[in-house]
């Protein structure tokens, strides 16, 4: 398993060790001991999520003001552009974003600690995204930052207006969002 730093400290790309043979492939998609001992990331995951979306769906930018969640994101079908935004007011990288292509083919995972807003754009015809979270869903505590907030200026690889949920259509700009101290 390989840890790749990103432009924001604490956010990492992870490349698993993939074993291939004449039957196909095998890899450990998560191993708590290796995560801790080899990557130096301590995380206790309590929930697994799985979503499927069609091309050009954009889900995000989401976070929970109650029970903030760390997320380990991977793609099992298709390709997404996965984005994390630092919304920790005291962080030197507050308001900065990173974005990486995660796909069933590259098998890359993105580790996003609590304190970030998360979202993704589906690039392939369909994408299935699986992610582990370090705290439970808090329905009353989920918040949305506007995906195209001009202050964030996220460079989404987008060619036409995305398909959004009603919630995401009405996201808050970061400057007026409830954020983490
Ligand atoms: C997140 C979540 C949702 N739900 C229910 C609530 C709704 O009835 C339905 C769809 O929820 P939502 O539209 O919030 O799903 P997404 O737009 O994919 O939200 C997620 O998208 C971004 C990318 C994230 O990182 C978050 O995990 C999460 O906010 O699933 C649950 O029952 N449990 C959950 O943990």
N-to-C span: 33 Å
Uncertain runs with pLDDT below 50, 5 residues or more? none
| Relative helix content | under 10%
SS-derived structural category? mainly beta
Helix tally equals: 2
CATH class annotation: Mainly Beta
The name of the CATH architecture is Sandwich
Classify the fold: give the CATH topology: Jelly Rolls
Number of strands: 13
Order of helices and strands: EEEEHEEEEEEEEEH
Q: Strand content of the residues, in percent? A: 35-45%
Number of domains: 1
Radius of gyration: 16 Å
Note the main sheet: 6 strands, antiparallel
Q: Which ligands, by name, code or SMILES, are bound?
A: dTDP-4-keto-6-deoxyglucose
Overall pLDDT score: 96
Textual characterization of the structure:
This is dTDP-4-dehydrorhamnose 3,5-epimerase. Belongs to the dTDP-4-dehydrorhamnose 3,5-epimerase family. Keywords: Isomerase. It holds the Pfam family dTDP_sugar_isom. Pathway: Carbohydrate biosynthesis; dTDP-L-rhamnose biosynthesis. With 181 residues, this protein is mainly beta. The chain has a single domain, classed as Jelly Rolls (Sandwich). The protein has two helices and 13 strands. The protein has helices at residues 32-37, 166-169, and strands at 2-5, 12-15, 19-21, 24-26, 47-54, 58-64, 71-77, 79-86, 97-103, 109-112, 116-122, 126-133, 142-144. Strands 1-2-10-7-12-5 form a six-stranded antiparallel β-sheet, with no helix packed on it. A five-stranded antiparallel β-sheet has the order 9-8-11-6-13, with no helix packed on it. β1 (2-5) and β2 (12-15) form a beta hairpin. It is globular. It starts with a strand and ends in a 12-residue tail after the last helix. Bound molecules: dTDP-4-keto-6-deoxyglucose. DTDP-4-keto-6-deoxyglucose is lined by residues 49, 51, 59-60, 62, 71, 118-120, 137, 142, 165.
């Amino acid at each position: 398993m390989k840890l790749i730093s990103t432009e924001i400290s604490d956010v990492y790309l992870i490349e698993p060790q993939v074993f291939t043979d004449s039957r196909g492939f095998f890899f450990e998609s998560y191993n708590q001991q290796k995560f801790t001992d080899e990557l130096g990331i301590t995380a206790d995951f309590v929930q697994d999520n799985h979503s499927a979306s069609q091309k050009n769906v954009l889900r995000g930018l989401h976070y929970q003001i109650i029970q903030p969640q760390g997320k380990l994101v991977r793609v099992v079908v298709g390709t997404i552009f996965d984005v994390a935004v630092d919304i920790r007011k005291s962080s030197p990288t507050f308001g900065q974003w990173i974005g990486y292509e995660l796909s069933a083919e590259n098998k890359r995972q993105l580790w996003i600690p609590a304190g970030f807003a998360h979202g993704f754009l589906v690039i392939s015809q369909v994408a299935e995204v699986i992610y582990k979270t370090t705290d439970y869903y808090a329905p009353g505590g989920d918040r949305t930052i506007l995906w195209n907030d001009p202050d964030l200026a996220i460079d989404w690889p987008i060619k036409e207006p995305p398909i959004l949920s009603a919630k995401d259509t009405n996201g808050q700009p970061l400057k007026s969002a409830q954020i983490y101290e």
